[in-house]
Prior knowledge:
mainly beta
Amino acid sequence: MPTTILRCPFSSCRSRIIKTDDENTNIKTVTGNGGPRLLHFSDGEVSLNSSTKNLKFYQVNDMWTFDNIGVSRPTSMDDEFSITIDNGSVPVHIERYLTCADCDKGPLGIAGSVNREALEDPSGSKLVYYLYTDSVFQEVPPTSIDT
């Protein structure tokens, strides 16, 4: 995974959310289906995504991996989506939404539980985080070869 800095999609903010690279083993890319509509960033414009099928997410297993992320209170909706891992589908119960911690705009992704232990933990410390790849501004820093 090339080094990319993921930022808030809103030009008035652009807060750094997370850095992806080969050294950060807490991040992987997965495909998701179902769930709520999320922000979609394209050509400088932000809107809601039109589909909830075959969406790409950055899966982050530990919230402390993020540089800056907002997490909503637990949702009251009884919604699930599924992620595809090794050609199998795994259900994820949606617990919270991800937002920009600086401007509070979103949703940029979701946090959910994949097992009973996570569902029964009120602190949210056992949640898995799914940042929608199209909801963030992706900055590719110049490499030392470019400078």
